[in-house]
Amino acid sequence: MWSNAAIAQDESAAPESAEASTDEIVVSGIRATIQDSISTKRQATAIVDALSADDIGDIPALSVGQAIQTITGATTHREKGDASEIALRGLGPFLSNSTFNGREASNGSGDRSVNFNQFPSELINKITIYKSQQADLIEGGVAGTIELGTLRPLDYGRQRIQIEGKVNYNPYQDRIIGDGGMGWRGTISLVDQFDIGNLGRFGISVGYQRQRTSNPEETMAGSSTWRACDDSVDVLNGNCRDVSNAEVNEGTPFYIVPNALTYRQISENDQRDAVFGAIQWQPASNIDINLDVEYSDRSFAEDRSDLTFSELRLALQNREVDPAGFLRYAEGMTSLESTSTLTERSEEYLGGGLEIAVDATDRLRLTADVSYSDTTRLDRSRSTRLRTDALDIFGDRTPVGNQRVAYTYDARDSFAPVFTIDPRFDLNDWSLFSDDARLRRDERQRANTIWAGRFDVSYELPGIVSALRAGVRYSHQTYGDYTDRVEMTQGDRAVDRDANLLCRTQFPQRDFLKDAPGNQISSWATFDPLCLFNAYLGTEDPGRSADIRGITNTDVLEQVWAGYVMADYEGALGSVPIRGNVGVRVVKTDVESNGLRSALDVVDNGDGTIRLVETGDFETVTIKHDTTRVLPSANLIFEVQPNVLLRAAVYRAMSRPAPSALSAGRSIRLDDGTAFADVADAIRSIQASGSPRLEPLMSWNGDLALEWYPNADSLLSTTVYYKRFSGGFQPVRIDEDFVIGGQQVTIPVTQTRNSDDKSSIYGVEVTAATRFSFLPAPLNGLGTKVSYNYAKSNFKSHDILLGDVYDPVTDQVEPGIIPPANLSGYSKHVVSAQVYYDIGPLSLQGIYNYRSQYYQDFVGGNSQLRYVGDNQTFDLRASLDLMRGVSLRLEALNIFNEPKVTYMPVVGSTRQYHYYGSKYFIGLRVKM
């Protein structure tokens, strides 16, 4: 299926730079990649789009995520300025299934998508996206299946050593004082084959990459909890009054507001070491043994400097409220906090598998595969907070004479709200951050492990049914996480003064938020967090708690048995050749989720607030759930003309909830760091960490595609598709008993259920690719590829606090006060456009990607609605062959510095915006 080299089919094409014999022209560069991709699409039985390259490292991208977003209908969610999770056909990552060399891959995020940043693009040489399903594919892709593949050394068929080094420059990192903004990555790979006599043929491929880069960030962020406040009254002191959905539905005016808002400056260093290896052994002509191993060790350290407006619900006056319910302008009073944090993450991935294929006869092929995939992610943060007070660290009254500072909030002119504070208060005066010192050490570990095995049988037949296939699969997946917090507060002003004076730092960055609209705050007093830990505790790291058990912890076991039968057919309908497959897959899923329950003690923080902590006496609650689903599928291809294909597909598909969404834990939300004023305030915020009884989202699907292949460089295809969903997602409140402060109380705990809603999505995707070989030289090196996806859906996802809520006792639905979102990740419009110039030794490429607004669920679910605004990026790539086997390469990413903007819980209500800046790479590649 995978072509080793795309050979030019038009004799009029200009000569290309390539390793070639005297009687053929071998295409290379971007043109070769597009030719291989077109060939893969044409030969596939299912509706497929692909990106493939003959050589390791020839996929034109710096990351796998960036490469995928050039494929028709695929787009990405950006984190740290790079492509991360993938959405297909405008549908979110949880509706897609990702596999690596045909196997499920574990993830450190708690969802089912592959962490594409974990795998170097230089060591991947094929990416296939199955838009339609067929019975032999691993189940789990309503939107599609993304398959990543590494090469098999004997199939590759030739020896190659490749070395590549890149240096990168990041202008935003260059703004960090004392940092030049430079980074690097180096890759080396080897492919070789050996004839070992009576033992047959043996091949090996191995690749290694080391990366040292940076991902700075400038951001403003609101808290993850937004509340509805009564807009009919003004509150001069204290927080605004919360209003219920019922009150609003009866006519009480409201506005929504976060608990806090933070300006955040981030400096970051990112390190990754990755090794890929494969062994292919053919001891006899009918036996093929493949072993592959992938290892990645990635870590980063973030230095965060935060300025937090911690009491946004306090004494809001002169409000201007948007018709959608969010604040456009307000005046208020708030404490200010300078928070300094060192966040460190390490993520280790180890995966691989052994496949043995035996041609038992000329027609019978037996294949067995076992695989292992394990990801462990550990996050550790040490955070220090210093808050404003009426007195400074020397005991003198501050210029404003109050703990709280007056401010105005103005979001009328752009997505970036502007804060203006009382001019008497100097944000850069360290002595004004003098009170309520708080030190936190947070640690969270996520561990995801998958053991899997499958056995497949294929039997070729003469006649219209050309082959029968059958197989079984078993997977054993575990997902667990724990969250641990060690916290200390103190109010001794003398101790605060000594620590404050000792640990002051210069604001880490020049020109903070210079590119954001409005007159944004550009600096504030900052401190060294490790110095503060040492000053207060006598150590930089007090370590985690002796007991890391907690009611938020997750312990999920998922076991899947699946079996399928499928028939391939090939024949003719009159004079029209036809081919395709028809089959059915049966999937049984068993889930066992363990959660801890504990009584809660009330702890006085010493600053007028309280917090809740577990008593340490735990009991385990186990919730089991199982489902069985039948997934029929049929694919049909009509060869209307030798270069025109008409495809049709009908299939049923499923997408399972993320492992973290199956948690049986309970979460006490502390409103992003603001402790509770009283117990009554605390108990309103207990939520389920997940919903173990969530079932897969099911859909019936139909696709119809028309594809025209004029030549090896050209493609024009149109696909229309329809999906009918059974069930949506709806919050449900279930009463549970808790012991808080020695008293038993009944609390409505909110989680998510599968609703009985029916919904649908229909869409169209179009791809056009060609090389303008008919133009006179040198313009005949120009080429382009453009793809567009349009989707329309009426799916509903309700806000966990302000949306529709189902009452299982009364079987009634309480209407929400904000509109529901659509499918997580759903974008109505997705565009990818490439223009390339590939002739002789020179290759140039410009890549534009656009994705319209979409709803992005938080991993684990049971959270409020979050929307990501329209976003677009433009990247440039170039390579120049200096001599045989040596090329110079340049890349420029996000050259227009497009920010990422998120809204919550309604569109227009800015929760966060990020600026990442551009990135520039220059490198040298040597092939031998």
From TrEMBL:
This is TonB-dependent receptor. It comes from Tsuneonella flava. Residues 41-144 form the TonB-dependent receptor plug domain. Residues 1-21 are annotated as: Disordered. Keywords: Cell outer membrane, Membrane, Receptor. The lineage of its organism: Bacteria, Pseudomonadati, Pseudomonadota, Alphaproteobacteria, Sphingomonadales. The keyword Disulfide bond does not apply. It holds the Pfam family Plug. Residues 11-20 have a biased composition (Low complexity). It is found in: Cell outer membrane. It comes from the Bacteria.
